[in-house]
Structure formats: structure tokens, C-alpha cells
């Protein structure tokens, strides 16, 4: 088979068994990679209501179709399981070489089942899987863990994905850290690893993936590399990283600021990628085979917050905004010290930043006291507040034990109106993207993604303000970021497109058509060159739609249908100043966008995937399963009747 390794490996940590399964041509074409593989396994193999931290939960690691080819940017890998943070479908994605090494080692996917009764790590090398004792490294921070495993294996090129002390302590916002500075952070997949006593996975593969038309792939790769070299977006990205976008968001009035109370920050130009490039940027880093080195590295021996070690990378946009503007902190060293701590302990900086903002506002409003916080008096703009709350959460100290359960649980327990400014969807704290000034983001945080307030489910509104954004999917006319009409169908198509980019294992910065980095037509070309298929845009988008419906069905089956498709109250407050001043998101606007999205998706009014749509995707078994669990799939409206 071309383009795939052709096998999946299943490791059971309870009994130590390792089983290989065939991943054949039909499965490959039906699922491709990423969510396509993971959502199918989770939906069909996990019983509804399973304990996310029990041995019955499973973790699925995958790359994608172009993973381990020569196309630059084939670096995305995925980990999926039931989320202990949200209780619904969980998924995290990361860049780097984990997916490549896994595929070169002979596997399109790795499934982890059961739970060990003592700390272990996995060593996967060219088709051989070993479960090794991790007693010596349990308790270590992530960089030390990676070094210790490489030393034990005597292989410096092994790729490591590991958890830190936060994951071990079952902090529900724990992140898997890879290459010391890359995080698969969202939805607590590291917490699931912790519950299985799985400290790390080390992978190394030296095999090659067979390609149907190597000459055509070579030409495609050559052209792609050259185009990226002169692409103005990629050039900016190389200079300033993702936080080079901070001034743009500031100008648009949608830079998340002061716990989502504002959309502009006076100190924006002190935390931007441009400011970093002129101050503490030590060097730029890139994934294997990528010619757009956008990763930052900050290495400063002496700072008021102790040394900042380059191996932990440097803060990217999400962290810069979360630990910066969201908390009114304009000190890049404080932000990067917190970034380092988060990577070392293994926690999600997005979830953590929302938690810190919520704690400050609770204190301001008299909902939490100094005594509740172990003597801390939290303040906006205060690095000590950030570093102290992070420490409490990562170690489950004091109130940190409750905060480590996530913002939904913490705000429900504390109450007193604090739920109104607890910014999460389905229990997943929001990414640093403001839905009031780019309205389609509301859908990205709700219906378009099965996880909650994650931003990587689709390109956002500004991408569709230019003409001919994605002509193959009918997205031709520019639509303002403030408009609600039309966002339902646009975001639905953009979400399927993103799932396809992901299923290829491609970095969005390198292949997302909505960012003008490719076209859907070219994506189909390279799929055909690699696999020898003669596939079409329609077939591949339908494959992505199948994956999205499976993931949505998982979330619905866990009880989160339309009722979960809602934003926190904070977004009903208008933004007070800047270019998006006066904009909010009302219930009517949310209802309108959801109704439109559901019609486009072929879902019921309750947000349940519809029978006709599911059957058209070859998912009749999902219809039966949803109906068996009390979710009606035939109360559809619009296209699926
Ligand atoms: S753009 Fe950045 S994340 Fe994407 S492949 Fe290149 S270095 Fe990796």
C-alpha cells in the first residue's frame, strides 16, 4: 500500500500485551489519519459514560497520510481519548516528529489500553514494542525525563512524548510535552497518560513509506519549498513567530485582555513577536523538514524569575496572549518564565491562563479571599500572581487542588456568580481568540469542534474577508468578521477542510488553503501522487466530514448536544473599546449561527448528527448507537429532512 505503513499497534498496559492489526487500503481511504482514525476507534470501542481516568479509557496516537513523506510541514500528530477535563471527545495536536517516527517504525496509529500498576514508558523501535519501567523517572520534569530516557536507550534520535509532574498528579489541564518545548496540551490527554501510569512514549523508526509516484512528489516538494521561501506570510512567521500577530489583533480590537473584559492592551507592543525579536529571542527552531522556522527559543541566564532555559523553547502567540494581555502582564521575561514552568511541569498554558484570570477576578470581586489563596493577593499585571497560581495548580497545592479540576468544576464549586466569567465551553478553557470580533469563532468553539473552546478546528473569520478564500468549497465572496449571516455554512466547510489538512498530518501554517498556503486542488494532487488513488475534492471532504461526525457523535452520546453549544456569559458583554468596540454575541446570534450550521451539517435541531447524513457517510451504525442511547437522529430539518 502506498502512503501508509499499513499497520496499527495496540498496547495493553494492564496485561502487557502488544498486538498488531492491519490498516488496509479500504480503511486508509475511509479514515486517512488523525481524527479519522481516532474518532472511529473511540466511538466504537469506548462504552458511553466510561471513566476517563479508568483503565477502560483508551488513547490513540496518529500522524497522517503525508506524515514521513518529503512534503515540508508533514509534522502534525494527534492524541485522542475521552477527556477527563470535559467528559466528552478529547483530542490534542502537536508538531514535531512523533508521528513521523511512529510511521517510520511501522505504524499508522498506536492505541494504548488498560493501565499499569507502576510507572512505565513505551519504547517503540522499528516494529518492536517494549514496556519499560519508569520508576526512576516518575516525578521528574519533562526535560529531565527526555534526557533520562534517551540516555537509557542510548539513542539520541528517539522522539519522546512525555508527561510532567502535573500529569502524574492527574491535574486535568495537563499537557503532553514533546521535544521539551512542543505541547499536545488541550483536553487533558496527559492526565489520561498519568492515570495509566504511562510516563512517556519513545519512538524511533528507520523505515521508508512507499510512494506511488515518487517523481511527481519530488517535483511537488521542490515547488512547495520554493513557494514557502517567498511567501510573505511565511517570511513574517519566520521573523516574528506566531506572536507577530499581536499588533494585528490589537488593531482589530480583539486581543484577549484582562480576563476577556477588553480587546486591547496598552502593553501589546512589549509582548509582541516583534518585541521578542528585538530583545530576548535567542534563535529560531523548526520541525524536521520544514523551511519555515517559526518556533521561538528564549535562553536568558539571569532574570528576576531565575534562568530561562532555551531547551524549553519560547512562548508562542497563545501563551503570549494568555500569560500576557489576558492578565495585563507586559513583561516578556515573566511570560517566558511561566512558559518554561508550564512545559517543565506539563500543563496547558491556555487552560492555565484562563484559570489565573478567573482567580484574579474572583479576588477582586470578593469571591475568593487571601486566606482561600494561601496568603496570595492576586493582581492584574503581576508576574508573581501568575507564577504562584501556576505552581498551586501544577502541584495541586491549597486551592490549586480544586483549580486543577478545571475552570468549569472550580467555578461551579465556588459559585457566587463566578460561573459568568469562567471562560470555557464544555469545560475546555478558551483559546486566545475573541468571538465577539470574529463571530464565526463562536461556532469553532461549539458546533464545529467536538472538544470545546479549541481554536484549531477551522480557520477563523479574517481568513474569509478576502475574495476567493476557498473557491473549491464555494467560499468565494468576502464576508466581514462581524457578520453572523453566512457563518454557519462557511465555518462548516472550513471545519471539514481543517480536518482534512489534519488528516494529512500537515501543519496548518504550511498547507491550510484558507491561509493561502495551498489550494484544495493541490491537496488532492499530492494525495494522489503519494497514494496512487484518483480521488476528488468531494471524496476527501466527505472523508473529513465522516471524521467530524464520528467525533461529534461521541460528544453527543456523552450528553453534550446543542446544550453544550454555548458560550460563557462574558461574551454577551460588549467589548468596551478599540476597533471592535460595542460588539458582543447575543443568544439570538448564537441560535442563528447554530441553526445555520446544523442545517449545513445535516444535524437535528438538537445538534445530533442526522440519520440521512450519517447514512450518506457510511455511518449507519452510529445512527443505531445514538438512537439506542436516546438521541433522536431523524428530527432533522433542512437538507436531511
Ligand atoms: S511552520 Fe512551524 S510548526 Fe509548522 S512545520 Fe514548520 S516549524 Fe513546524
Structure, described:
60% of the residues are buried. The longest helix has 21 residues, at 537-557. The protein is of the alpha+beta class and 641 residues long. It is built from 25 helices and 16 strands. It is globular, with a radius of gyration of 23 Å. The model has no long low-confidence stretch (mean pLDDT 97). The protein has a 6-stranded mixed β-sheet with strand order 2-1-6-3-4-5, sandwiched between helices. It has a 6-stranded mixed β-sheet with strand order 8-7-12-9-10-11, with helices on both faces. It has a two-stranded antiparallel ribbon with strand order 13-14. Helix 2 packs parallel to helix 22, helix 14 (349-364) crosses helix 15 and helix 19 (487-503) crosses helix 23 (587-601). The protein is 38% helix and 12% strand. Residues 73, 75, 95, 286-287, 290, 292-295, 507, 509-510 line the site of iron/sulfur cluster.
Task: Briefly summarize what is shown.
This protein has 641 residues and is of the alpha+beta class.
Amino acid at each position: 500500500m502506498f502512503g501508509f505503513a499499513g499497520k496499527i499497534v495496540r498496547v495493553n498496559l494492564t496485561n502487557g500485551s502488544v498486538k498488531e492489526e492491519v490498516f488496509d487500503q479500504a480503511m486508509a481511504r475511509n479514515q486517512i489519519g488523525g481524527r479519522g482514525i481516532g474518532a472511529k476507534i473511540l466511538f466504537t470501542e469506548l462504552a458511553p459514560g466510561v471513566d476517563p481516568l479508568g483503565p477502560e479509557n483508551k488513547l490513540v496516537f496518529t500522524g497522517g497520510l503525508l506524515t514521513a513523506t518529503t512534503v515540508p510541514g508533514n509534522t502534525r500528530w494527534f492524541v485522542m481519548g475521552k477527556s477527563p477535563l470535559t467528559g466528552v471527545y478529547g483530542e490534542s495536536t502537536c508538531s514535531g516528529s512523533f508521528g513521523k517516527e511512529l510511521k517510520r517504525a511501522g505504524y499508522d496509529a498506536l492505541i494504548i489500553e488498560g493501565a499499569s500498576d507502576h510507572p512505565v514508558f513505551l519504547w517503540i523501535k522499528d516494529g518492536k514494542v517494549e514496556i519499560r519501567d519508569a520508576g526512576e523517572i516518575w516525578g521528574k520534569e519533562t526535560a529531565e525525563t527526555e534526557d533520562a530516557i534517551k540516555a537509557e536507550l542510548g539513542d539520541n534520535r528517539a522522539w519522546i512524548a512525555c508527561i510532567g509532574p502535573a500529569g502524574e498528579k492527574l491535574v486535568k489541564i495537563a499537557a503532553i510535552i514533546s521535544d521539551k518545548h512542543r505541547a499536545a496540551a488541550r483536553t487533558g490527554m496527559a492526565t489520561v497518560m498519568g492515570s495509566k501510569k504511562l510516563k512517556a512514549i519513545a519512538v524511533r523508526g528507520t523505515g521508508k513509506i512507499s510512494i506511488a509516484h515518487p517523481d511527481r512528489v519530488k517535483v511537488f516538494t521542490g515547488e512547495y519549498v520554493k513557494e514557502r521561501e517567498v511567501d510573505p506570510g511565511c517570511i513574517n512567521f519566520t521573523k516574528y513567530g506566531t506572536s507577530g500577530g499581536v499588533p494585528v489583533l490589537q488593531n482589530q480590537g480583539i486581543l484577549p485582555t484582562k480576563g476577556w473584559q477588553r480587546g486591547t492592551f496598552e502593553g501589546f507592543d512589549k509582548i509582541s513577536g516583534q518585541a521578542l525579536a528585538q530583545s530576548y529571542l535567542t534563535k529560531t527552531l523548526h520541525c524536521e523538514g520544514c523551511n519555515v522556522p517559526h518556533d521561538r527559543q528564549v535562553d536568558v541566564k539571569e532574570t528576576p524569575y531565575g534562568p530561562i532555559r532555551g531547551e524549553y523553547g519560547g512562548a508562542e502567540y497563545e501563551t503570549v496572549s494568555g500569560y500576557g494581555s489576558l492578565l495585563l502582564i507586559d513583561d516578556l521575561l515573566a511570560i517566558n518564565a511561566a512558559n518554561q514552568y508550564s512545559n517543565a511541569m506539563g500543563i496547558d498554558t491556555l487552560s492555565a491562563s484562563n484559570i489565573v484570570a478567573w482567580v484574579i477576578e474572583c479576588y477582586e470581586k470578593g469571591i475568593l479571599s487571601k486566606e482561600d489563596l494561601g496568603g496570595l493577593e492576586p493582581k492584574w499585571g503581576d508576574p508573581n500572581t501568575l507564577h504562584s497560581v501556576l505552581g498551586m495548580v501544577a502541584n495541586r497545592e491549597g486551592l490549586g487542588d480544586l483549580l486543577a479540576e478545571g475552570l468549569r468544576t472550580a467555578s461551579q464549586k465556588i459559585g457566587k456568580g463566578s460561573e459568568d466569567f469562567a471562560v470555557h465551553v464544555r469545560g475546555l478553557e478558551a483559546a486566545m481568540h475573541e468571538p465577539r470580533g470574529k463571530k464565526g469563532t463562536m461556532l469553532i468553539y461549539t458546533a464545529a469542534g467536538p472538544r470545546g473552546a479549541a481554536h484549531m478546528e477551522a480557520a477563523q473569520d479574517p481568513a474569509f474577508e478576502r475574495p476567493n478564500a476557498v473557491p473549491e468549497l464555494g467560499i468565494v465572496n468576502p464576508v466581514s468578521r462581524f457578520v453572523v449571516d453566512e457563518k454557519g455554512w462557511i465555518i462548516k466547510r472550513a471545519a471539514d477542510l481543517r480536518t482534512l489538512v489534519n488528516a494529512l498530518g500537515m501543519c496548518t501554517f504550511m498547507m491550510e488553503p484558507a491561509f493561502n498556503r495551498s489550494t484544495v486542488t493541490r491537496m488532492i494532487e499530492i494525495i494522489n501522487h503519494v497514494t496512487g488513488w484518483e480521488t476528488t475534492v468531494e471524496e476527501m471532504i466527505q472523508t473529513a466530514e465522516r471524521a467530524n461526525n464520528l467525533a461529534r457523535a461521541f460528544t453527543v452520546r456523552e450528553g453534550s448536544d446543542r446544550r453544550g453549544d454555548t458560550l460563557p456569559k462574558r461574551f454577551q458583554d460588549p467589548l468596551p473599546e478599540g476597533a471592535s468596540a460595542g460588539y458582543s454575541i447575543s443568544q439570538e446570534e448564537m441560535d442563528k449561527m447554530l441553526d445555520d450550521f446544523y442545517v449545513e451539517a445535516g444535524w437535528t435541531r438538537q445538534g445530533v448528527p442526522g440519520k440521512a447524513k450519517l447514512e450518506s457517510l457510511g455511518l449507519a451504525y452510529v445512527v443505531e448507537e445514538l438512537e439506542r442511547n436516546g438521541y433522536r437522529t431523524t428530527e432533522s430539518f433542512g437538507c436531511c429532512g
